[in-house]
């Protein structure tokens, strides 16, 4: 699960090419990358795949057209970072030959707005509406009036406090955030986790200025948990799965709904249908079933459809 990732600079060093060439490879789809905030990352499995392609490319007679060539469509997924999304990307690479998936982990709100502006095909979101205390659908209803939209449940997951093993600072609840010796690691503005956390501190009457480290932001769940593990902060708000991967303690607060929002066009219809079929398959559920901190009972359920 905790796979090594590289920056474009590191990839350039590995292959002894320029950084410009790395970005060209990514642009052409020859090297798959994803974004965390505004930073590009490439997974170890993708580096291995690229190496194999470089060393074992078969010679092709270009004068003879291939039989039944596969037309590949790139599905752009923007929104929240999640380990189930990472798992889906790897699973799809092995099984969906007609679809390439390009993720950009920029937070739930930014991801949904990117989808609204027509610059992506799918948004991964977990946005809590403070008024109704429900997830995602209120935001979708406000934004997508005329567009063809499908919302598919990916998972329910546990959100709560992440602390060091053994909880040495004896942190237990929101009120402890006001203790001067407690330093907090926050998520970036626009992330679904930030929405939930801000909603809770408002309920508890806690002003952000009372929280040491409130302005310290990380861009994904693993980097947030890593900050706690390395002692940069004492506590973070995030998902159980991130705490488990780094052997940290977890104090549950709430269960949330994590959904995929599909925006249909004439161009992406076949690709999105193939992706939904994959997510709803028994094989994908079986492959993800042991991931800790998730409830997959509604995996693949269409909870909203306007097509």
Strand-helix topology:
Blueprint: E1 5-6, H1 8-15, H2 19-27, E2 34-36, E3 39-43, H3 44-55, E4 73-79, H4 83-95, E5 99-105, H5 108-116, E6 122-125, E7 128-129, E8 134-135, H6 137-143, E9 149-163, E10 184-187, H7 192-203, E11 217-218, H8 221-229, E12 235-239, H9 240-245, E13 249-263, H10 269-279, H11 282-288, E14 294-295, E15 302-306
Parallel strand pairs: 2-5, 4-5, 4-6, 10-11, 10-12
Antiparallel strand pairs: 1-3, 2-3, 6-13, 7-8, 9-12, 9-13, 9-14, 9-15
Helix pairs in contact: 1-2
As a percent range, the share of helical residues equals 25-40%
Radius of gyration from the CA trace?
21 Å
Main sheet makeup: 13 strands, mixed
Tally of structural domains: 2
Order of H and E elements: EHHEEHEHEHEEEHEEHEHEHEHHEE
Catalogue the unreliable spans. Answer: 56-64
Model description:
By secondary structure, the chain is an alpha/beta fold. It has two domains: 5-49 and 70-156 and 257-306, Periplasmic binding protein-like II (D-Maltodextrin-Binding Protein, domain 2, 3-Layer(aba) Sandwich), CATH 3.40.190; 159-255, Periplasmic binding protein-like II (D-Maltodextrin-Binding Protein, domain 2). Helices cover 34% and strands 26% of the residues. The chain contains eleven helices and 15 strands. The protein has helices at residues 8-15, 19-27, 44-55, 83-95, 108-116, 137-143, 192-203, 221-229, 240-245, 269-279, 282-288; strands spanning 5-6, 34-36, 39-43, 73-79, 99-105, 122-125, 128-129, 134-135, 149-163, 184-187, 217-218, 235-239, 249-263, 294-295, 302-306. The strands form two sheets. Strands 1, 2, 3, 4, 5, 6, 9, 10, 11, 12, 13, 14 and 15 form a 13-stranded mixed β-sheet that branches. It has a two-stranded antiparallel sheet with strand order 7-8. A hairpin with a 4-residue loop joins strand 7 (128-129) and strand 8. Helix 1 (8-15) crosses helix 2 (19-27). It is globular. 35% of the residues are buried. The model is unreliable at 56-64 (pLDDT under 50).
């Amino acid at each position: 699960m905790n796979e090594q990732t590289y920056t474009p600079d590191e990839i350039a060093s590995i292959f002894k090419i320029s950084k410009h060439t790395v970005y060209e490879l990514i642009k052409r789809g020859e090297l798959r990358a994803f974004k965390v905030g505004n930073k590009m990352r490439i997974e170890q499995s993708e580096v291995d795949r690229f190496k194999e392609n470089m060393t074992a490319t078969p010679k092709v007679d270009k004068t003879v057209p291939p039989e039944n060539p596969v037309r590949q469509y790139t599905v752009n997924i923007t929104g929240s970072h999640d380990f189930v999304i990472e798992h889906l990307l790897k699973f799809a690479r092995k099984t969906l030959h007609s679809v390439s998936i390009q993720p950009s982990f920029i937070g739930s709100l930014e991801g949904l707005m990117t989808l609204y502006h027509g610059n992506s095909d799918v948004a991964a979101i977990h946005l809590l509406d403070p008024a109704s205390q429900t997830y995602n659908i209120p935001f979708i209803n406000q934004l997508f009036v005329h567009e063809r939209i499908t919302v598919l449940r990916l998972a329910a997951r546990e959100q709560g406090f992440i602390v060091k093993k053994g909880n040495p600072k004896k942190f237990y609840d929101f009120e402890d955030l006001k203790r001067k010796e407690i330093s907090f690691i926050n998520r970036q503005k626009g992330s679904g986790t930030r929405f939930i956390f801000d909603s809770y501190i408002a309920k508890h009457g806690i002003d952000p200025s009372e929280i040491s480290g409130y302005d310290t932001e990380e861009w994904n769940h693993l980097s947030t948990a890593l900050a706690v593990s390395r002692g940069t902060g004492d506590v973070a708000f995030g998902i159980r799965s991130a705490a488990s991967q780094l052997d940290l303690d977890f104090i549950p607060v709430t269960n949330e709904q994590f959904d995929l929002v599909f925006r249909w066009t004439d161009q992406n219809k076949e690709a999105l249908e193939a992706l939904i079929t994959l997510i709803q398959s028994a094989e994908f559920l079986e492959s993800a079933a042991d991931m800790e901190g998730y409830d997959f009972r509604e995996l693949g359920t269409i909870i909203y459809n306007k097509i």
